[in-house]
Here is the input.
Amino acid sequence: MLVAEAQVDHPGRRRVLELGAGQSSLAIARALEGQGGGRLTSIDHAPQFAREAWEAVTACAGVDARLVVAGFGWTECGAASFRSYVGIDEALRTLAPFDLVLIDG
Here is the structure.
């Protein structure tokens, strides 16, 4: 069992936000399907690499799957700066709240 799948396999975790789509998306979708359904929102900057996995994700019964394509930008936080997804605010507002956030680098 993948770590992502194990994290989803808990009561009340039906709305998952994933940063980085691919095989982990499929594991999450299958875990949600096994619990009777849920919502998976995945954000990725290069969806072409997740195409095959997402075809299988969208076939999972009872799973509302959304793939949000977003580029990277720099975010300042105090004296530090880091890369983060840009242009995802509206998608997050629309699809929130989330029960679980997974980062798949």
The longest helix spans residues 23-34.
